[in-house]
Amino acid sequence: MVKSNFGVIIFIAISVLGLAVSTHAEEKSNRSRLREVLESWLPTVGDDSAPSGSPTTFGDGSSLPLTPADILSAEDLKAALPWRSTSFANQTGTLGWSESTFDVPTKMKDRVAFWRDIYAKYTTEQGVLHDSVHVQIVYTPIDFSTIMKDPSLSFSQKARAREDFIESKRTEILERLQRLSNVTDSEGLAGDDLRVWEQFSRIDDPQKFSKAMEKNRIRFQLGQKDRFLLGIYYSGRYLRSMEEIFRKEGLPIELTRLPFVESSFNVNARSKVGASGIWQFMPRTGKEYMKVNKDVDERNDPLISTRASARLLKQNYQMLQSWSLALTGYNHGAYGVRSITQKFGTDDLSELIEKDPTLAFGFASQNFYACFLAALEVERNASLAFSDPKWSPEIESADFKTGSSQSWRAFLEFFDGDETLAKSLNPHLTSRVREGKAKIPVGIVLRAPPNRVRVAENFFSGKFPASKIGTQLKGLPMPKSLYSASSVLTAARSVIRARLAQPPKTSQLVLPEILASVPRTAEASLRAPLTPAHDDDEPEVLSIFNPRPASYRSSGEESP
Q: 205: how many CB neighbours lie within 10 A of its CB?
């Protein structure tokens, strides 16, 4: 299903639960500043909590219970399919594959364990303050549910309370590191001082505590457990087709799990720097593999972009000759990765990170492969990491190629005028086309209800005019599964738009009241994972990492 701009509002409203706006003027101001607040909100909110212990073991009971019933409606659950594990065996002859290809390297185990916790232990109402170089050093876990559920605080007050809380925790950590930098052994240390000392014990650097106090070393990472579970649900629509695409390309099917890192399979994932779709292609890179222009943006089509990502990953591997580097190149740029391997004389990613933790890679690229391995492990063990995970059924449709240029309005007739459904099956058509400023171009792939696709293909081949579409569709009703899903989402959006467009009738407008009138199926669809950025200077990114920098090109230009 397609998420409108209000999808962001709904996701935040669900997270807040107690969001209150005291006046219409304040409500309007908050809406206009939604992005600004989102930038400062998601990375840094917390409440006190006990220190984290060892990394999560699936099913050990150390994380909050989470089930599909927490994020899906009864109707969704009834229609959902049981998640089932994929066999990654018997891929002999696949490029660069062996049974041990995606085993966790010894030197990366701590790093992978950190990201596994982010995916399988902490929800988006939790997170951790940790060291950005040695990510496994977790200073304190964070829980900001108390702040978010406080009905006495407005939207902006909650953001400010969160910021103040985080800054106080950062100050405490800095003070602790300052104390530890002045001692030579652990004698006399206790509590958190002793715990942090022991976490640093494996680092052989006399200046380690002083360096840990440097700018950007203490950072916050938001948990992803609920988003990962929702990502598993949405992945059910595409994974079977994606795996087939990668098999045809001769690539390991493990790579189809990369969108868990990039977007949590949210087809509406966008970033402020231009990355788009479940694979988060940047525009220039996308143009090398797909149609990306004012009228068509195939980065947003899950399967077309999957074919493109398969080609890009294959080229990366052919250049770098290892999947750890090829995947890092997906984020950083293959030419940039090759330059770094040549500089340090090794193609071992663990060694590259260890030799120079402040590489041109940056935080995102340093952690990208570890994050992929963690996501692969969590999804592979989904039945242990989550309670009874579910898959969404595949969306019923068939595709065809346009033989002539036609209007969006005419195309809508094949969906009985249902624009939401038409958009959900054709997310690569831009607003210019949908608003009638341009026609659907010749030579692109469209999707239509399977029992109507032949008629649609004939229409786009010029075999009959738009005035005859209704006649041609007689006896070909819209499949019920498509129609019912679309009607729920359309109704939800109508409620949201109507309520948000009007002044509150009382002194307070509580957004959860709006949600109470929204069918839960649509609510879950609009909650498609909105994954925050990792780096403080790129807080608006919707993928787990900032999208790759300007150097993310197959031609390998350097970052500015």
A: 10
